[in-house]
């Protein structure tokens, strides 16, 4: 080795040693700050706020991973914002309040690095608290949920939001070390986050408190049949990381005592952070609702995520097997209760489906003004290769026990399934929809469509009679020949009616039975 | 020379806090005297590289503090006790001194030993684990001195270091000053002329931003001969120089 090469190696070794020393000193600074961070005192407050708001709200949801994770994302940052921003602002204003700016300005280590250690300590404690909160919530959900696993993206968005909250609070405290800074920034951050979750311009979806499409929010159908799309979460993470970087950069601009090297770095960080926020907002603005209720951002979308999730359904037997996604296992008894009377009416008749399986709801509509999961409670008939009929059942969007929205009861839920399923099954079996004769309603359930399905008068009368039997009562009777025939047929004992249908259903479907021929 | 300043001026708006001060000094204890508002603290803040002069030139520890790399080297070798020392009330004495040792870029391995030594030198070893909020004003002043000397500075700037110290502590502090002055330049700004007389080898007197006297304590004492104001000889010299400067 030449002398020159040896010198270069020695120089590199010295630089490495200096870096290592700086790193060790940084770690020790962090350790000191961790011991004395104001965030430690805020941990009980944070825990209490989380329990009062996000935890109770999430745990009130049915034990489904998607509902609880998305509900948590919506509330958790709002719970963490006041204590984290407040503690960070307090720590950020510490040097100014304590008149230590002069002394800190005479040390060789840039004031910025000391501030970063203080900020990191606040962030570490807040993240520990956050992880504990998420751990408790997910742990309990793991014990209660019948199927599935944790959704990590909502948790990641929250975790990425914590450093951003701390950075904003810290920068505000450092820039304005007044006694009023802490309350102003704390209240300001809370309301800013709260208002950002209200649906406004599409770019606002980038707010980390928005979980999924703003008009849908946490929904049982999302992430159950198809993979949870991380598109919006990625945009939100970009946004909050941008906020954190910009705020920390702004902190560096405050450090005038250090060298001129710091200012360009701090300015660049601020610019890059703000650019990331703008980029994320722009990406969120391009989002569109996909049929599975999630937001697709073309610039971030990975088509591999569009695959359906494989699962082994859980089934109950009521004339035919009724099978649900295992995530909905808790609702299988209600589904059976809802469908058993309808299926009993058509049991053994030609054309009866061999199986009823739950299908994924399809979401459509404008993103911000409303949406509709299509076909709640609707049976979609599918042909199969052996000629037997499979049917797909779509459960209502609102589940009993969900605290949000209509807060429906179990009976209402049953009604919401039974009535449309009955209508569709009757249409499949008789060849005409029951709404041709009368409009029925079950309290709390949707009304059977009044649209005429065509068909012969006898078909319409039988369809109406079967609908009455399925629970479509209470509607005014139509005093027509078809209505009277329907009443007459409905009044027959179930066994007689069933025996007649078993004999005459093919002829009825072909339109060869007249009203007079109905018993 | 550890301090070389020539025609240094510092202006805050229309107020000229320091007006054309020139000074050269090497190792030893240097006393900076002057009435309130004379510009002592501003001069010390410039020497501590907290603020830059409006005009004039400065060289500290044979380096130009205007250049970042040199300023950093100066700061590594600098100890500073500001007039009003802030502190983190939740920190213990040891933590506070360790905090500044780390900020002064001391090799992390040396920090625990240096912290213990500094705390011992200000006679606070028994209070090393006490939180700062529990200490008296005098003890806090000693904590401030400990953080200033933790890195064995070559240039130590102390602004009113004996304020709040009891007589016993002041005696101990003067001993410490003499010890530090043996190998470093210690600049002590104070109102208490007896501290200067005992501990300083060189003294300067400032008034209205200007240096009106620079010499030894004996020379200052000599200026007061025959002057009526003041209880001690040094005080009389102080009063005489000020009176002459203002006349």
Description:
The complex is a heterodimer of chains A (519) and B (247). With 519 residues, chain A is α/β, with parallel strands linked by helices. Chain A is built from 15 helices and nine strands. Chain A has helices at 3-36, 39-59, 65-92, 94-97, 101-104, 111-144, 152-175, 181-196, 231-254, 262-285, 332-346, 410-430, 457-469, 481-491, 494-509; strands spanning 288-289, 295-296, 314-318, 320-324, 355-358, 362-364, 372-374, 379-383, 389-393. Chain A has a five-stranded mixed β-sheet with strand order 3-4-5-9-8, with helices on one face. Chain A has a two-stranded antiparallel sheet with strand order 1-2. Chain A has a two-stranded antiparallel ribbon with strand order 6-7. In chain A, helix 3 (65-92) runs antiparallel to helix 8 (181-196). Chain A is elongated, with a radius of gyration of 32 Å. Mean pLDDT of chain A is 84; it is low at 368-376 and 436-453. Chain B has 247 residues and is α/β, with parallel strands linked by helices. Chain B contains nine helices and nine strands. Chain B has helices at 40-47, 68-76, 93-103, 111-121, 137-149, 167-181, 193-199, 217-223, 233-246, and strands at residues 3-12, 15-25, 28-33, 55-60, 78-81, 155-159, 185-190, 202-207, 210-215. Chain B has a six-stranded mixed β-sheet, with helices on both faces. A three-stranded antiparallel β-sheet of chain B has the order 2-1-4, with helices on one face. In chain B, a hairpin with a 2-residue loop joins strand 8 and strand 9 (210-215). In chain B, helix 3 (93-103) runs parallel beside helix 5 (137-149) and helix 8 (217-223) packs across helix 9 (233-246). Chain B is globular, with a radius of gyration of 18 Å. The model of chain B has no long low-confidence stretch (mean pLDDT 91).
């Amino acid at each position: 080795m030449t002398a020159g090469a040896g010198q270069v190696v020695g120089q590199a070794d010295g630089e490495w040693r200096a870096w290592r020393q700086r790193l060790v000193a940084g770690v020790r600074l962090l350790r000191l700050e961790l011991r004395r961070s104001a965030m430690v005192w805020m941990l009980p407050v944070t825990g209490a706020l989380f329990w009062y708001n996000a935890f109770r709200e999430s745990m009130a949801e049915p034990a489904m991973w998607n509902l609880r994770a998305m509900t948590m994302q919506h509330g958790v940052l709002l719970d963490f914002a006041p204590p984290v921003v407040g503690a960070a602002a307090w720590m950020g204003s510490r040097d100014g309040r304590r008149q230590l700016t002069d002394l800190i300005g005479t040390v060789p280590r840039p004031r910025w690095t000391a501030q970063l250690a203080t900020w990191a300590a606040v962030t570490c404690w807040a993240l520990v608290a956050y992880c504990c909160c998420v751990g408790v919530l997910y742990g309990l959900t793991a014990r209660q949920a019948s199927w599935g696993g944790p959704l990590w993206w909502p948790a990641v968005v929250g975790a990425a939001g914590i450093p951003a909250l701390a950075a904003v609070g810290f920068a505000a405290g450092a820039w304005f070390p007044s006694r009023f800074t802490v309350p102003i920034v704390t209240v300001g951050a809370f309301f800013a986050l709260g208002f950002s979750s209200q649906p406004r311009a599409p770019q606002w979806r980038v707010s980390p408190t928005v979980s999924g499409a703003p008009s849908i929010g946490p929904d049982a159908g999302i992430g159950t049949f198809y993979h949870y799309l991380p598109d919006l979460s990625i945009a939100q993470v970009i946004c909050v990381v941008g906020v954190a970087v910009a705020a920390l950069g702004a902190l560096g601009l405050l450090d005038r005592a250090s060298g001129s090297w710091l200012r360009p770095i701090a300015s660049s960080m601020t610019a890059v952070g703000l650019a990331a926020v703008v980029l994320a907002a722009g990406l969120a603005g391009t989002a569109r609702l996909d049929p599975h209720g999630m937001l697709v951002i073309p610039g971030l979308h990975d088509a591999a995520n569009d695959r359906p999730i494989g699962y082994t359904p859980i089934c109950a037997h009521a004339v035919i097997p009724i099978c649900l996604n295992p995530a909905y296992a808790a609702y299988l008894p209600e589904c059976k209760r809802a469908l058993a009377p309808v299926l009993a009416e058509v049991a053994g008749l030609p054309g009866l489906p061999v199986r009823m399986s739950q299908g994924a709801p399809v979401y459509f509509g404008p993103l911000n003004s409303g949406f509709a999961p299509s076909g709640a409670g609707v049976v979609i008939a599918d042909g199969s290769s052996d000629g037997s009929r499979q049917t797909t059942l779509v459960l209502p969007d609102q589940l009993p026990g969900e605290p949000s929205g209509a807060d429906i009861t179990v009976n209402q839920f049953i009604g919401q399934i039974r009535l449309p399923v009955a209508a569709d099954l009757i249409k499949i079996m008789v060849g005409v929809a029951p709404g041709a004769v009368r409009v029925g309603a079950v309290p709390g359930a949707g009304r059977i469509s009044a649209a005429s399905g065509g068909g012969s008068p006898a078909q319409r009368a039988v369809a109406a009679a079967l609908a009455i039997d399925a629970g479509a009562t209470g509607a005014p009777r139509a005093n027509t020949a078809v209505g009277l025939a329907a009443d007459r047929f409905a009044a027959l004992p179930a066994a007689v009616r069933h025996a007649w249908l078993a004999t005459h259903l093919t002829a009825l479907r072909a339109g060869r039975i007249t009203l007079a021929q109905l018993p | 020379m550890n301090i070389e300043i020539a025609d240094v001026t510092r202006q805050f708006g229309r107020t000229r806090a320091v007006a054309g001060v020139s000074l050269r000094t090497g190792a030893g204890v240097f006393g900076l005297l002057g009435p309130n508002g004379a510009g002592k603290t501003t001069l010390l803040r410039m020497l501590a590289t907290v603020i830059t002069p409006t005009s004039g030139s400065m060289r500290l520890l044979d380096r130009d503090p205007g250049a970042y790399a040199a300023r950093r080297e100066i700061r590594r070798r600098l100890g500073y006790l500001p007039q009003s020392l802030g502190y983190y009330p939740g920190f213990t004495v040891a933590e506070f001194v360790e905090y500044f040792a780390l900020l002064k870029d001391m090799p992390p391995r040396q920090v625990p030993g240096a912290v213990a030594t500094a705390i011992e030198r200000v006679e606070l070893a028994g209070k090393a684990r006490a939180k700062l909020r529990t200490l008296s004003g005098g003890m806090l002043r000693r904590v401030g001195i400990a953080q200033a000397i933790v890195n064995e500075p070559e240039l130590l700037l102390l602004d009113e270091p004996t304020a709040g110290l009891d007589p016993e502590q002041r005696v101990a502090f003067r001993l410490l000053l003499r010890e530090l002055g043996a190998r470093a330049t210690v600049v002590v700004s104070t109102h208490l002329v007896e501290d200067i007389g005992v501990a300083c080898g060189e003294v300067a007197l400032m008034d209205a931003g200007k240096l009106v006297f620079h010499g030894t304590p004996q020379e200052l004492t000599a200026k007061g001969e025959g002057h009526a104001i003041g209880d001690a000889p040094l005080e009389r010299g102080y009063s005489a120089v000020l009176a002459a400067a203002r006349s």
